[in-house]
Amino acid sequence: MILTEETHDLNGKNIVLRSARPEDAEQLITYLKTVTGETEFLECEPDEITLTKESETEFINDHTGADGKLIMLAFVDGEHAGNCSFHEIGRSRRYKHRVSLGIALYEKFTGMGLGKLMLGRMLEIVKEKGYEQAELTVTEGNEKAYHLYQSFGFTEVGRIPKANRYDNGTYAGHIYMVKYL
Ligand SMILES: CC(C)(COP(=O)(O)OP(=O)(O)OC[C@H]1O[C@@H](n2cnc3c(N)ncnc32)[C@H](O)[C@@H]1OP(=O)(O)O)[C@@H](O)C(=O)NCCC(=O)NCCS
User: Fold this and answer.
1) CATH superfamily label, 6-180
2) How far does the centroid of ligand 1 lie from the alpha carbon of residue 110, in Å?
3) How far apart are CA 133 and CA 97, in angstroms?
4) How far, in Å, CA of 60 to CA of 54, rounded?
5) Does 145 sit in the ligand 1 pocket, CB within 6 Å?
6) Atom of ligand 1 nearest to the CA of 151
7) 123-135: pLDDT as tens digits
């Protein structure tokens, strides 16, 4: 879906939220390569991001052309700061009430309330669209994300032990969380 550009104020900083556009493709590849290297809490290592401008453009177009998914970008004083996205968990009538959410910011834009702003806005959007529950996974140890999700009413419903295996041989589990909208 398309999110028309909207502006917010966050402690005096100008925040723009809008959906991704095809011309953002290269910027989004850079973002993915950077944020996956800045935290161990995302789903892969930076060298596993092998997207091309063409494949990323196709991915963006697929999101803007469909009703059940959105890539929301945030810009802080004009600089790309991070993304929050949702997609329907399934298209069948039995699954269509559920969405999966994800969020990741560049490290330099964490800790200033942007995650709270973006997640809050995303939850408004999915609720307005009639979805009944939002779901996400958070890696064990990601206290900031866990706290953020809890503060929006997500509750833990289960854990998958050893969901991540890191290159150094250590593991981390995943916590599954749900918020009923
Ligand atoms: C997780 C993430 C989205 C949170 O966004 P953020 O903008 O940094 O978070 P905010 O500044 O909005 O703060 C969120 C809350 O966490 C709290 N918090 C900050 N650090 C914390 C910590 N170490 N432990 C517990 N809570 C913490 C803040 O106080 C705030 O709570 P409050 O509003 O009750 O005071 C962001 O840090 C990020 O993108 N991290 C890297 C990628 C990632 O982990 N993504 C999530 C994958 S599940």
Assistant:
1) Gcn5-related N-acetyltransferase (GNAT) (3.40.630.30)
2) 7
3) 6
4) 10
5) yes
6) 34
7) 999 999 999 999 9
